[in-house]
Amino acid sequence: MTRLFFATLILLIPATTFAADMNAFLKSVKPDATKLGISDATFASATRGLTIDPQIERLTRRQPELVRPIGQYIERRVGSLARSGQGKMRGQRRTFERIEKTFGTDPYVVAAIWGMETGFGGNIGKSDVFRSLATLAAQKYRGDFFRSQFLDALLILETEGLPRSRFVGSWAGAMGQTQFIPSSYISYAVDFDGDKMRDVWRSVPDALASTANYLKEKGWIAGQPWGYAVRWPDGLAREAQTKSWSEWHKIGAKARSGARFPRGGEATSFFPAGAEGPAFLITLNYDVIRDYNSSDSYSLSVALTADRLRGGPAINLKWPSAETVNRDQRLAIQKALRARGHVLSNDAGRITRDVRAAIAIEQRRMGVLADGYPDVDLLRQLNR
Ligand code: CA
Fold first, then answer.
1. Is residue 136 part of a domain?
2. 140-166 pLDDT per residue, tens
3. For the chain, N or C: smaller number of CB within 10 Å?
4. How far is the CA of 186 from the centre of ligand 1 (A)?
5. Domain span at residue 270?
């Protein structure tokens, strides 16, 4: 849900003297809150005694992120979530059945997100949501993003009938069992246990249905898989390309799990660690997962965990150990692509489907294998 992917950060941060001013922030945001219909009582209850969280200040003033190799991350997460997830799903069997019927989203993907975000509800965070969001907003971290999340959190407190004490979350203000940021909560959270409150913290049905609804609203195509890890056809160049499932079948691509491709629909080849690494065929449903948290490590972990929860076999993928590019390098790649006339759907360094397609076009122009993979070589070549 465009929540920032903090799990990849390695926290080696020097102490800082950066001074964000909480009182100045609260004073500046109050008129906007009033305009939104936030009562004085709600504002006071949310902000009473609020101080800057020095820990968050340190987290945001980190050095450039160190990115763990994608394969190492995925293997570890999928293994442990697949082991613990089946029991958790059994405990919510009726909820998952209702979710599939109501939203048409894959219940195993919803369960995998639940596992990835909070270990199936075991770790929903301990930070006060208002304090976290106000600290990030006071710092102007990522521009106005957290100011607007802070206002949305106020709106939730004003209108949902939930106690002030419920508002705990991650240090970046993600809330509940599947870690909704306030703007996502407002747009997509649903009441699924019938008590008229959207309690994504304590009601597992509410949290899971909210996630299913989010996926549905972001374009989940019912009846299509997210994709498959595949055996790549012999002799076919490992390039980014889109074909119908039946064409992929005809030229010899096979799901490593042994699953059969669907009859209808199409899929795009995807090499998340470059041509040397494992090959996948993905549908637009993969992009919907990636929308929840914009990282391929995250999205593939969710996707592969979902398949294991469904009863699929453990798949042994051979990942190259090369490190991926960091955020600054991804931003530089996007800048270089724009300079070459590509129109991209985001300028936040996210390597989404359209960015990979643009990379593949440039790779073809440069006469190198068009696997759509951003690495340091590509950046060097683009800047030549
Ligand atoms: Ca409820």
1. no
2. 998 999 999 999 999 999 999 999 999
3. C
4. 14
5. 227-309
Under the banding of pLDDT at 50, 70 and 90, the label for residue 11 is very low
What does pTM read for this prediction? 0.90
Is 282 part of any domain? yes
Q: Is residue 28 part of a domain?
A: no
Cα 195 versus chain centre, distance: 29
Separation of 196 CA from ligand 1 center, angstroms?
5
Please answer whether residues 192 and 98 qualify as being in contact, where contact means their C-beta atoms are separated by less than 8 angstroms: yes
Give yes or no: residues 296 and 351 share one domain.
no
Q: What is the DSSP string of 291-317?
A: HHS--HHHHHHHHHHHHHHTTPPP---
Structure tokens at 5: 């992917």
Token pair 């030549």 is found at 384
Which protein residues have their CB within 5 A of the ion that is ligand 1? Answer: 191, 193, 195, 197, 199, 203, 206
Does 340 reside within a domain? yes
In Å, what is the CA distance from 315 to each residue of 63, 257, 365? Answer: 35, 7, 35
Q: How far is the CA of 199 from the centre of ligand 1 (A)?
A: 5
